[in-house]
């Protein structure tokens, strides 16, 4: 799985939580919850969806690190099982 696959997966999960989402308007380095207006329950559903989609455990202690799309992408990509080069 490459970075683009991760980004597509993130946006897919986000769209399932916020169907009104206009992904092309998202700014990758700005706080995601503010851009999409996600309440705490939506945010939790989003994180659970990421876990289900990518098979990556996201401990509650890491939630505060996942602020922007860029943060989430780096976090997931670093934890995905992939062949080492």
Account of the protein in words:
With 85 residues, the protein is mainly α. The protein has a single domain, classed as ACP-like (Non-ribosomal Peptide Synthetase Peptidyl Carrier Protein, Chain A, Orthogonal Bundle), CATH 1.10.1200. The protein is 54% helix and 0% strand. It has helices at residues 3-17, 32-36, 40-54, 69-79. Helix 1 crosses helix 3 (40-54). It is globular. The model has no long low-confidence stretch (mean pLDDT 92).
Record keyword descriptors for this entry:
mainly alpha, 0% strand, 85 residues, 54% helix, Non-ribosomal Peptide Synthetase Peptidyl Carrier Protein, Chain A, 4 helices
What's the topology here?
Elements: H1 3-17, H2 32-36, H3 40-54, H4 69-79
Helix pairs in contact: 1-3, 1-4
Short précis:
With 85 residues, the chain is mainly α.
Helix fraction by DSSP (H/I, runs of at least 4): 40-55%
Q: Class, according to the CATH hierarchy?
A: Mainly Alpha
Second CATH tier, the architecture: Orthogonal Bundle
Helix tally? 4
Q: Are there runs of 5+ residues with pLDDT below 50, and where?
A: none
End-to-end Cα distance: 13 Å
Calculate the mean pLDDT score and round it: 92
CATH topology: Non-ribosomal Peptide Synthetase Peptidyl Carrier Protein, Chain A
Order of H and E elements = HHHH
